[in-house]
Amino acid sequence: MEQVLIKKVEKTFENKEKKQSFTVFDDINLTVNPGEFLSLLGPSGCGKSTLLNIIAGLDQATNGEVYVGEKLIKTPGSDRGVVFQEAALMPWMSVIENVMFALRKKMKKEEAKEHAKKYLKLVHLSKFMNSYPHELSGGMKQRVSIARALAMDPKILLMDEPFGALDEQTRSMLHREVQYIWEETKKTIVFVTHNIREAIMLSDRIVLMGTRPGGIRKIYDVTIPRPRVITSPEFVKLEEDIMSILGGEIEKVMREEMGDDFNSKKASLLYGTNNNMGDNI
Ligand SMILES: Nc1ncnc2c1ncn2[C@@H]1O[C@H](COP(=O)(O)OP(=O)(O)OP(=O)(O)O)[C@@H](O)[C@H]1O
């Protein structure tokens, strides 16, 4: 268990050709507590992935610092495991070989095999360890990619919309799976999502990010006892609270993207809380 400290982080992208720069956010301050499950939630383009990539060391902050424990983060490291929306498994390797590949520099082959088996068991894929990626469903591939990240025994697990491409049923199953993994391994998890219900279902805290100017709008403590039920009154209440702020953020993005074509009635029809997919922003 380790804490992540994000101190005055700014990210500006330079477009050298157009001689323009674009600041995604300019002053993010946040502490992710050891063992915490924290979600970054916000409209498209607010910088969730950018912030996660900076924590991962895959991208650098323009200003400010990120620490994992005492360590200043500049590059990727085995203390942080990353899971992306696409599992990116090597198609010519079996499931167990994919997990072992990540361990090749860390341990000998036999030890790596035992280690990989342990993590495949944790994600309930022991039966499929000799299968190949094309033989697996999308949800199973994502479980392999979670096992691969966990096998490195990172202190922090960073997840960027890991279930974004999956159907609703598979997503619910993986919510249970990831909660089980979190409880078993006691990892600190930072989880990026568009989906309000997903954030409420999984998180200890939800960091709601906004755009133009980008930054943290509000932080919610989710105190609803687990396992959580989406129809419970406290769940619905929190969903409405979050949507009331997010609605304004989404409208801002749409206004900017659509210019004169923007029509707030159209926006509320598309993104209102009453439709079934209102949780998915
Ligand atoms: N390499 C880059 N160069 C220039 N601009 C970038 C680059 N990467 C991201 N951006 C811009 O930074 C902003 C934040 O992007 P980011 O992907 O972090 O947002 P997000 O909140 O994760 O969005 P989404 O939910 O749609 O993935 C966007 O406006 C994006 O266009």
From TrEMBL:
The GO terms describing molecular function are: ATP binding
Recorded hits in Pfam families, A to Z, give:
ABC_tran
Recorded hits in InterPro entries, A to Z, give: AAA+_ATPase (IPR003593), ABC_transporter-like_ATP-bd (IPR003439), ABC_transporter-like_CS (IPR017871), ABC_transporter_ATP-bind (IPR050166), P-loop_NTPase (IPR027417)
Gene3D superfamilies linked to this entry? P-loop containing nucleotide triphosphate hydrolases
* Keywords assigned: ATP-binding, Nucleotide-binding, Translocase, Transport
Report whether Nucleotide-binding shows up as a keyword of the record. yes
Q: Which SUPFAM superfamilies match?
A: P-loop containing nucleoside triphosphate hydrolases (SSF52540)
Q: Does the keyword Transport apply?
A: yes
Q: Superkingdom, according to UniProt? A: Bacteria
Describe the location of the ABC transporter domain by residue ranges: 4-236
Write down what this protein is called.
ABC transporter ATP-binding protein
Species of origin: Evansella alkalicola
Taxonomy-wise, where does this protein's organism fall, top ranks first? Answer: Bacteria, Bacillati, Bacillota, Bacilli, Bacillales
